[in-house]
Specification:
By secondary structure, the chain is α/β, with parallel strands linked by helices. The chain has 3 domains: 290 residues, Glycosidases (TIM Barrel); 100 residues, Beta Barrel (Elongation Factor Tu (Ef-tu), domain 3), CATH 2.40.30; 88 residues, Golgi alpha-mannosidase II (Immunoglobulin-like, Sandwich). Helices cover 22% and strands 27% of the residues. The chain has 10 helices and 27 strands. Strands 1-2-5-13-14-15-16-17 form an 8-stranded parallel beta barrel. The longest helix has 17 residues. It is elongated, with a radius of gyration of 25 Å. The structure holds calcium ion (CA). The site of calcium ion (CA) has 7 residues, from loops.
């Protein structure tokens, strides 16, 4: 994936009002020029909270901002015409579009049904009470505002395995719906936290119902035909049976495009768990490198106490380099969100250098790091917080450096705890670079590039250092870096 750079073009607090599809179309040209190749866009269909939905509360997969449902026609990001214009514009500029797909659950059902349920222990989901009882639950989705357009499928209690709320008795919890699928048990091939992590939230989709399975295949093909698809980001994969995505992604590759870029969100730091998942899905998709994100968070918190030589310990990009999508932050890890573990701003240029300029991994850039973000929300302690996510000034240059200089073989010089360097040797036609990073004081490292690089002048592509450094007759020089910073040294004659 050396030639590709992914951008997550949204964050949790992106403003409401239908601006995003318009903004991404306007920025398409500049993103392509910078070196972005693939755009991860937010869920494009109607969520249960309508125009204020971020998109992870799936209501109607077939309503791309086209029907008056859940309080408006457009989604938070705009209407269907704006979405189609955005995708067409991005593709015109040579960018590929990756759709965010939330298939684990649905929310905001239209009608109550009489159902049979059994109570589930939330801390051990395999502990399901023996006795079933009758209740009312919101499990019927008829999509009255769409009225059968695009699909006539009605979702009902047979399409779900569990709910978190029942009426009569009025109760919150986790309730296993009793229907003909799964013999009363949760699905297998899901994460093992809480005994069985099939159930996450809302109405949990029952993939063992063949009609549901067929409808979701029909939907994927419909989406590609109607608006265009170059890839998928699969939400909540650890709550969805692996066999389903193995089949579904296989179908999509066959019917849409064998080259689809597919990345699943299996949010787990243990590479052996991710390895098992990759095996179960026949290696048909990539996974986010959760462990590396946590290393970046820890390093940014520890400051100069962190041993930089351990930065890649446990990372997926080390154990499964061909299947790792590397990231610094995302919409779940940003401040005040559910998996909050943000990487401090001072460390972000270092972290981005470590995902953008290396040989392995498909790097994913996060919207606020490129454009900044400012928002207010309630924190985990109930207090109100205003968050300022500053634009990372050197990020556009780092993305450009990936396109121009992250070329050829890589040599690592991870020899001191406070200063890492690596060399990209370039190819016959493309120049390489020397990347040097420190989490302590300004420093330098003696680096030998070989006699073919003797007497060559280098400059810092990021402009953090101003001097010119010239190698001696052996191709050796002392390459410098500012305190808590990164420099990307490139041949002066390549600038
Ligand atoms: Ca599930």
């Amino acid at each position: 994936m050396a030639e590709r750079t992914l951008l997550q073009f949204f964050h949790w607090y992106y403003p409401e009002g239908g601006h995003l599809w318009k903004e991404v179309a306007e920025k398409a040209e500049s993103l392509a020029a910078m070196g972005i190749t693939d755009l991860w866009i937010p869920p494009a269909y109607k969520g249960a909270t309508g125009p204020s939905s971020v998109g992870y509360d799936t209501y109607d997969l077939f309503d791309l901002g086209e029907f008056d449902q859940k309080g408006g026609i457009a989604t938070k990001y705009g209407d269907r015409a704006a979405l189609q214009n955005a995708i067409a514009t991005l593709r015109e500029k040579g960018l590929r579009v990756m759709h965010d797909v939330v298939l684990n659950h649905k929310m905001g059902a239209d009608e109550l049904e009489t159902v049979q349920v059994r109570r589930v222990d939330p801390d051990n989901r395999t502990d399901i009470e023996e006795d079933a009882f009758e209740a009312q639950a919101y499990t019927r989705f008829t999509f009255p505002g769409r009225n059968g357009t695009h699909s006539r499928f009605v979702w009902d209690m047979k399409c779900f395995s569990g709910v978190d709320h029942i009426h009569q008795p009025d109760e919150n919890g986790i309730f296993r719906l009793i229907n003909e699928y799964g013999d009363g048990e949760w699905d297998t091939e899901v994460d093992e936290e809480y005994g069985n992590f099939d159930y996450l939230m809302g109405n949990d989709v029952e993939f063992r119902n063949r009609a549901v399975y067929d409808e979701l295949i029909f939907w994927g093909e419909w989406l590609a035909k109607e608006v265009g698809v170059d890839g998928f980001r699969l939400d909540a994969a650890k709550h969805i049976p692996a066999w389903f995505f193995r089949d579904w992604v296989g179908h999509m590759r066959q019917s849409i495009n064998p080259e689809l870029l597919v990345v699943a969100e299996y949010w787990h730091p243990d590479p052996s768990v991710l390895r098992t998942y990759l095996d179960r899905v026949d290696q048909q998709l990539m996974l986010f490198d959760v462990a590396l994100h946590h290393r970046f968070h820890d390093a940014s918190q520890a400051g100069e106490d962190f041993d930089l030589r351990t930065i890649f310990d446990g990372a997926l990009v080390v154990s499964e380099p061909d299947y790792a999508v590397t990231l610094v932050d995302n919409h779940d890890t940003q401040p005040l969100q559910s998996l909050e573990a943000p990487v401090a701003p001072w460390f972000k240029p270092l972290a981005y250098a470590l995902i953008l300029l290396r040989e392995k991994g498909l790097p994913c850039v996060f919207y606020p790091d490129l454009y900044g973000a400012h928002y207010t929300d309630t924190g985990h302690d109930g207090g109100e917080y205003t968050i300022e996510m500053p634009r990372i000034e050197s990020l556009p240059k780092l993305i450009e450096a990936r396109r121009k200089y992250a070329k050829g073989m890589q040599t690592d010089l991870f020899d001191t705890d406070d200063c890492l360097a690596f060399i990209r040797h370039g190819t016959e036609t493309e120049p390489g670079c020397v990347v040097i990073i420190t989490n302590r004081n300004a420093t330098q490292k003696s680096i030998t590039l070989g006699s073919e690089q003797a007497g060559v002048a280098f400059r810092d592509f990021l402009g953090h250092r101003n001097e010119e450094i010239t190698t001696d007759e052996n191709g050796t020089a002392d390459f410098t870096v500012e305190a808590g910073s990164v420099s990307v040294w490139v041949r002066a004659d390549s600038l």
